[in-house]
């Protein structure tokens, strides 16, 4: 008996399902695409400068005129090769232009800019030119000039991915640097301008 009831229920369900499938009309899928829609963004003008916090340069024998090797040197008096006991020795420094020693900083700055009117100009300024050493000795920053590229400018904006990169040449006067060792306290500034 159970089997007859189950058979009747299955047959009735199949008949209902079959009639609903046959009687439902097929729906067509509809789709529509818009005309092209304009997209705009307004990008602000930016200028970003990256430099180092400290420039720490080491002078070597060549910077001091190349008259020493490993810190020592010697020569004879070329003005008066012989003394009679009263001849004054030549007091001309063998170190040449000790008042104009140049050191290159190959890369000192990177500038990103999207200036729509042109490129970027970079300038340098000696902020505090005195470097203090031991026992009152001083060294002076005489000047800072563009180095690779020179002048420190580009006619087109570098953009926001690849920066405009360059260095500087710093000139020192060691006329009053009477002591060996570290000299500190000097400073320079770098200014980037997008004209």
Q: Order the strands across the largest sheet as they lie in space.
A: 1-2-7-5-4
> Helix- and strand-based class?
mainly beta
Number of strands: 8
- Tell me the number of helical segments per DSSP (H or I, 4 or more residues long): 1
Secondary structure elements and pairings:
Blueprint: H1 2-23, E1 47-51, E2 101-113, E3 120-128, E4 130-132, E5 138-147, E6 153-154, E7 159-173, E8 187-193
Antiparallel strand pairs: 1-2, 2-7, 3-6, 3-8, 4-5, 5-7
Q: How is this structure best described in words?
A:
- 11% of the residues lie in helices and 33% in strands.
- With 195 residues, it is mainly beta.
- It has a five-stranded antiparallel sheet with strand order 1-2-7-5-4, with no helix packed on it.
- A hairpin with a 5-residue loop joins strand 4 (130-132) and strand 5.
- It is rod-shaped, with a radius of gyration of 40 Å.
- The N and C termini lie far apart (99 Å).
